[in-house]
Amino acid sequence: MIRSYRKTDLEEMVRIWYEASVTAHSFVPASFWALQKSAMKETYLPLTENFVLEENGKLAGFISLVGERICALFIAPEMQGRGIGTALLEHAKTLRGRLSLKVYRENKRAFSFYKKHGFTATGEEVDEYTGCVQILMEWEGR
Questions:
Q1: CATH code: domain of residue 37
Q2: Are 18 and 37 in contact (CB under 8 A)?
Q3: I need a surface site. Which of 6, 66, 92, 142 has the fewest CB within 10 A?
Q4: What pTM, to 2 d.p., does this model score?
Q5: CA quadruple 117, 119, 124, 130: dihedral positive or negative?
Q6: CDD domains in the record, alphabetically (predicted)?
Q7: Number of helices (H) and strands (E), helices first, in the chain?
């Protein structure tokens, strides 16, 4: 079931974000992600429009939007590969006619995921926080 997040979901959302970030971004030190935990909980997530996918009473993943921008799409590592990311992304597509995001170039799995779901690369930039190259991607509904 996909639903709007509740404040009581924040701790679990941060856990999912952290574990999935460390798993997907081996090219960024885990210590970087650990230093971001409180900002995620106290600043970033509360400022976005969040939707969670709950399965059997447990959060499996979430997507965070600001306008037409996907700021986060994270699935608990133990729940990946089961269509949860696709379900959350499709939910976002029903809410918006256009979507954009940034994905690290070295995160080939995520880049392929977004391409498979109709996103196209529109440019690149260096992330000021990690120094890693990010690919800018966009999707437009038809």
A1: 3.40.630.30
A2: yes
A3: 142
A4: 0.93
A5: negative
A6: NAT_SF
A7: 4, 7
In order, the DSSP letters of 13-30 are HHHHHHHHHHHH-TTS-H
When divided into structural domains, the chain yields a total of: 1
CA distances from 40 to 13, 44, 51, 74, 95 (A): 9, 5, 15, 13, 23
CB 92 within 8 A of CB 70: yes
Q: What contacts 41, CB < 8 A, 6 or more positions away? A: 10, 11, 14
